Amino acid sequence: MIKWDTALFEFINHDLSNPAFNLIMPWLRESMFWIPVYVFLLSFLIINFGRKAYWLVIFTILTVSSSDLISSRVVKYSVRRLRPCNTETVQVIERVPCGSGFSFTSSHAANHFGLACFLSMTLGGLVPSSRPWLWVWAGMVSFAQIYVGVHYPLDIVGGALLGIVLALVWVSLYRRFYGHILTGNTA
Questions:
Q1: Which H helix or E strand runs over 169?
Q2: Separation in Å, CA 178 to CA 35, 53, 63
Q3: Pair 112, 138: CB distance under 8 Å
Q4: What phi and psi values does residue 149 have, to the nearest 5 degrees?
Q5: Helix (H, G, I), strand (E, B) or coil at 165
Q6: pLDDT for 89-100, tens place per residue?
Q7: How far is CA 14 from CA 6, 18, 32, 83, 146, in A?
Q8: Distance between CA atoms of 60 and 51, rounded to whole angstroms?
Q9: CA gap 175, 181 in Å, rounded
Q10: Percent of the chain whose pLDDT exceeds 70
Q11: CATH classification number, 2-183, choose in 3.10.290.30, 1.20.144.10, 3.40.600.10, 3.40.50.2300
Q12: For the whole model, what pTM was predicted?
């Protein structure tokens, strides 16, 4: 499995290399780049739901915070897998600074897939057209992590699964206690 992971990493990092990706991918993984999306989402919630959006925002923050904390503080330090850009066994085209932390799981993938899952399952019923875009967004951010050379594909898969599982837990709690607030359903 590690050989497959390394081969897929090298395919994405080397063989898919092109000037457009070299320009776009480093930006896709930057949290500051996505601030307009976060501001839009918060504005959308406030404009459309006012104070009713309070608990949704709280649970969204809980989803991202828990996925980030568990990925970066628990899993990474338990597994201790080196980033591809920090090993001598893998040829890496470094497109961003490597970073000193461990690789598995990708916190970017955990956070973005957790957010995509949570919002898809909570707001997706109110704005169904948002669902595919949330998943595409999480996928683009995660793919960029491999392309720029800081994560292996299995790091992304592990992070995505962690984020989705945590999102499902938070969705369950949100729906149980506060899900009726936005929809007006009491059932």
A1: helix 153-177
A2: 26, 10, 15
A3: yes
A4: 100, 15
A5: helix
A6: 888 988 998 887
A7: 12, 9, 26, 16, 10
A8: 15
A9: 9
A10: 96
A11: 1.20.144.10
A12: 0.90
